[in-house]
Task: inverse folding
């Protein structure tokens, strides 16, 4: 069965640079979520989209923005990167509440 | 607001022994409950879920969990663990009003010979 796809899987950036993470949800899923998992921490909700509209917002910094496109894929844009942004970023998609997670993008900021 | 508490940050257990990982939640509305497993350097894999119906749910890899509304708990159990069960386990709660998953802080299950 098709799963959630995230790209890239690994990304290394320097401080103050910009990064774009992509997420391709499971076909026919109507909601996309973004989570950030710092080292040794639980995943923290960033933002979600339902039918291409932002549906909820969590602890997402103002330096980050996200959108969902007409083909339902989503992108998380991160600007002015800081060392503390180094984390695993998960995308999840869902239909009626049950979320399926992608493998994550590991972002390292140096 | 909803919240999830996993009281045990680490649970060491010998192989073939039973294990219970505890999870308690709080919410003012009806919830869906999930357990996810995360192996080292990997993503989150759904172990099992409670949406409605029978309070005893069975998941993959021989795990099961019981939803107890009166105690607001959703403890995860396995009668006999294997070395390969060593991983981080996250309990999570979802409500339609919040439209997101709220995770507990995780329990590290360490299985040894």
Result:
């Amino acid at each position: 069965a098709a799963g959630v796809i995230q790209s890239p899987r690994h990304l290394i950036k320097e401080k103050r640079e910009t990064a774009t993470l992509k997420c391709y949800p499971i076909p026919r899923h109507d909601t996309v979520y973004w989570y950030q998992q710092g080292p040794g921490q639980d995943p923290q909700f960033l933002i979600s989209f339902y039918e291409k509209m932002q549906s909820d917002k969590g602890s997402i910094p103002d330096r980050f923005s996200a959108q969902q496109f007409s083909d339902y894929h989503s992108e998380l844009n991160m600007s002015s990167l800081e060392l503390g942004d180094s984390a695993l970023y998960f995308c999840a998609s869902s239909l009626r509440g049950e979320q399926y997670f992608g493998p994550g993008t590991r972002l390292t900021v140096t | 607001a909803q919240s999830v508490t996993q009281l045990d940050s680490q649970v060491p257990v010998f192989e073939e022994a039973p294990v219970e990982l505890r999870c308690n939640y709080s919410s003012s509305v009806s919830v869906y409950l999930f357990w996810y497993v995360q192996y080292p350097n990997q993503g989150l894999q759904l172990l099992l879920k409670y949406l409605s119906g029978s309070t005893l749910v069975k998941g993959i890899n021989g795990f099961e969990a019981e939803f107890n509304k009166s105690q607001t708990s959703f403890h995860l159990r396995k009668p006999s663990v294997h070395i390969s069960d060593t991983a981080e386990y996250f309990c999570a709660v979802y409500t339609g009003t919040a439209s997101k998953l709220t995770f507990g802080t995780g329990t590290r299950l360490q299985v040894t010979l």
In short: Chain B has a mean pLDDT of 91. The two ends of chain B are 41 Å apart (CA to CA). The longest strand of chain B covers residues 87-94. Chain B touches chain A at residues 32, 34, 36, 42-46, 49, 51, 90, 94, 96, 98-106 (CB under 8 Å).
